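In this supplementary section we document a worked example of the pipeline. Step one takes a protein sequence of length 461 as its only input; no multiple sequence alignment statistics are reported here. Step two produces a three-dimensional model, which step three serialises into structure tokens for compact storage. The input and output of this example are shown verbatim.
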Amino acid sequence: MRVSDQPLPTVSGPRPPQGWQTNLYVTLGRLPLAGYLWDDYEASWDDPLGRYEWDDLDSYPYDRFDVTCQWSGLDITVGTNNPDGAMEAAEANLTLDNRDGQFSQYDSFGRLVGYGPGVALDIWAEADGEPWWLFRGRVVRWQERPNRTVELQAFDRFSDLNEDPGGEWIPGTRGDTPAVRLGHILDMWGHPAAAHPRSFASGRVTLHAKASKESALVECQKVAESDGGIFGMDVDGTTFYWDRNWRGGRADQEEVRAFSDNVCQGATVVWDPVILTDDDLIINIANLTNLPEPVPEVPEGEEEPEEPPPISVTARNPSSVDRHGAQTTTDRDEDQWLTLQEGEELAQHIVNTLSEGYLRIEEFTLYLHTGLWREGIDMRVGDLINFVRDQHGLDAPARLSLLSLVCSINHSITPNAWLTTFGTTRATGDLVTVQWDAGEWLTWDADPTYYWDGVPPQPVP
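The serialised model returned by step three reads:
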């Protein structure tokens, strides 16, 4: 587990051998029963072991029940494949075998007895004796099918923040840092730190405080955008905020792994990579405008002061504009930073970071059941990877080493196969490996100032 991971729940139920080199735990909670009911699990209210008693709310094991024996298909999606977009809630879809009726929502009297929307779904894998979280959330849809299967859909707690507030509310206090503002919003929305873990970077800006009719999630994402960071939820249930240094990778990552589609030594070979460069990820002109200062309330009868104008800032990378054309930020007229300096620093950071066009590995797939267990399950959104590739460029063949961040993870698991597909951000750095050029002009290390035969290229007549 990662250093800051939440502890795993206690598991009940039989656990069969899977025949894999890793153990997958798929566990469900149960809804608590209302008081003063005959126990709904069995009709043996006089059980001498005290497990099934009248009005018995505590003796049933309300920890997680292992359903590894009963599931026949599992799909988990974490993160988003839009590398510079807002994070999305993690989703899990699960199919259970219900031929014996143990996962039915109702008893013979038609009462909801323990399963259904709201039950916990926790999933993790154990490799080399270590557990690694894959999903932690709650079921939102429990559908019993005529073929005696049950289909479950679950999301992590991140989706709870997107509820309609039902009116106007104030997210925080003028001058809040991002960490303070985010913590205040979560507290207001019923997600206190004592019950729901969080890990927030302080941030670089101070923030406005204006009344809002948006959801808590929208306001949290506005805070992150105004600081150049990312707000999201980790697979262990920890809510996180990473500031504008997030492209440097996670602090809890133990190893930067190398992957490749055409280099067999020193890298894990992957399947079906999608390699692209798109100008949607290039920003060489950053136009930002903040929210205007709110007008303070005045005593009745006094004239209200005029609302001060918002602050607008612009940063530009001329050389990138010449190469790629003008690629401008859009819909950035409600940033919440307070001062001109904060806005200018953020705009400059955007063009410094996003004005160049680099290769991006949109996605690639690992077949974990071929032996790549640790490579697949020990990976989180925000981890750095090194994608190595022999690239035949315009100037010369070269071995590229592209550092990128994982931005999405999809586990597609059946009893016979486990496929994991990763999406990554645009490259955050690259390195051309030193080698003799095999091109026409025999330049060393693809540097046009060095020539193997000492003779510079001649212009083509």
